[in-house]
Each structure stands twice: as structure tokens, then as C-alpha cells.
Design a protein that fits this description.
This protein has 9 helices and 3 strands; from the N terminus they run H-H-H-H-H-H-H-E-E-E-H-H. With about 240 residues, it is mostly helical. Strands 1-2-3 form a 3-stranded antiparallel beta sheet. A hairpin with a 5-residue loop joins strand 1 and strand 2. Helix 3 runs parallel beside helix 4 and helix 4 packs antiparallel against helix 5. The longest helix has 24 residues. The radius of gyration is 25 Å and the shape is elongated.
Length: about 240
């Protein structure tokens, strides 16, 4: 088997490429599949759990959290909380509700398969026979179906723009709206900070002051490193002491 069997998982891992734990689990899944190792079942299940936690970090309401309260939530608890955070239960459509129900059953089945046969998290009888590629395929396809279902629902959800960790590029349609209606006027103040006045369509101003380091760090890490290297080689500025002759 190869990663060709799980395009949805590949897409999710590409979307959240900065999520280090997701990427590590993805690497483990890829390695287990290449080696035809039963550990692919553990990795497939773990990817579903990690995706659930990422979605909950984005969508769970601080005032009305749905995140599982247990110290060690079950696989089904993560899935149920994610479905609630995505508000999939609010859609009044019998066919869609049956689809949600089937995905929950798929989650339970994947969890049972992992508990019975996964090798990465529990010790097994030393002479237990390995599972066939058909078992591996069933586990990975199930995980891929669940992850794809959750990810597509997430992409349609309304995010909290104040606290989201999604990249700037995710909101191009919002950026276009702002850029078409908001004007900028910039200068450098006496302390060397970039002073920007943001004029809203109403005429109100939003003032910002940005240090050179912060601007570079946020917008261009390569330029930040170049500036840092140049600053390390620059002479130390002489600070004049007031009142001394």
C-alpha cells in the first residue's frame, strides 16, 4: 500500500503543514504503509484524533466548550466533540444526519480495529499473526473517509478571525475586501518606528506603530535573518550622555 490510498489525509496534512505532531504522525503512517506494518492502523487512528484536536482548537467556544473534559478522552469522544464544534448536528436534513451517523459508526469500527490489532500502543502476543493488506486498507480508507468529511466541513465553517491559526492566504476573499476599501498612510517617527495610519471607510483612523524587527519577523523571515546578521556586524551606537562635557 501507499499514500495513494488516502488522498484526504494527504490534503489535510498539506493544509496544516505547520502542525508538527500531525506531520510526524503522517510520516509514521507513510513509513508503516511502505513496510506493510500493522502499525499503520495506529497511525491512521492517531491522525483522525490529531485532526479532531486541531479543529477543536480553532472552533471550540471558550464560553461554551465542547472539548472532552476527560484526562484521556476516548476516540469516539474526540469525534463527537468535533462534530458538535462543526455544528453538523444543527443541519436539519435526514439524509445528512444519516451520513453523520454512519461516520460515527465508522469511527467506532476504526477504534475497535486499532484496539484489537494495532501494534504501536499496546504489547501483543509475540506469535500473533500479522494482519493482511486488506485489513490495513480497510483501516486507512476508513480514516481517510472520516478525515475528509471533517476537513471539508471545517473549510465551510466560520472561524474566529481574532484567534485563528490559519495562514493569511486562507482568507484571500476577505483581504480583497479590506484592500479595496481601506487606505494606508505611513511615515517613520522620531524613534525609528514605522507609524501607519489606517483609514477606514467611515473616516476613522486605526494607528499602528511597528518596529523594524517585528515587521521583518512577521512578513519575511529571510529578510529578518539578513538584517540580524548585518546588525551583529554593525558598530555599537554611541549614546550621548546629557549634561556631560
Amino acid at each position: 500500500m501507499s499514500m495513494d490510498w488516502c488522498p484526504g489525509i494527504r490534503e489535510v496534512c498539506s493544509h496544516w503543514r505547520d502542525a508538527s505532531m500531525l506531520q510526524q504522525t503522517f510520516d509514521e503512517l507513510e513509513r508503516a504503509l511502505a513496510e506493510n506494518n500493522d502499525a499503520c492502523i495506529d497511525s491512521a487512528k492517531a491522525i483522525v484524533e490529531v485532526v479532531c484536536q486541531i479543529i477543536l482548537q480553532e472552533l471550540d467556544s471558550p464560553s461554551n466548550p465542547v472539548r472532552p473534559a476527560e484526562a484521556l478522552p476516548t476516540f469516539g469522544a474526540w469525534m463527537s466533540a468535533t462534530v458538535r464544534a462543526l455544528k453538523l448536528g444543527d443541519i436539519r436534513h435526514n439524509g445528512f444526519q444519516k451520513l453523520v451517523s454512519q461516520h460515527r459508526k465508522l469511527t467506532d469500527a476504526l477504534g475497535e480495529l486499532r484496539n484489537d490489532s494495532g501494534t504501536a500502543s499496546h504489547g501483543r502476543e509475540g506469535f500473533l499473526q500479522r494482519l493482511s493488506v486488506h485489513h490495513h486498507r480497510a483501516a486507512v480508507l476508513s480514516a481517510d473517509a472520516i478525515v475528509t468529511f471533517l476537513h471539508q466541513a471545517y473549510l465551510e465553517a466560520e472561524l474566529d478571525l481574532v484567534r485563528t491559526r490559519e495562514p493569511y492566504e486562507r482568507f484571500d476573499h476577505l483581504h480583497e475586501l479590506i484592500d479595496a476599501n481601506v487606505k494606508l498612510q505611513a511615515d517613520v517617527d522620531e524613534e525609528g518606528y514605522l507609524a501607519v495610519d489606517i483609514r477606514l471607510p467611515s473616516g476613522d483612523l486605526l494607528p499602528l506603530r511597528v518596529e523594524a524587527s517585528r515587521l521583518l519577523y512577521q512578513l519575511d523571515r529571510s529578510a529578518y535573518v539578513e538584517a540580524l546578521n548585518a546588525a551583529r556586524g554593525a558598530p555599537v551606537p554611541i549614546v550621548e550622555q546629557g549634561g556631560e562635557e
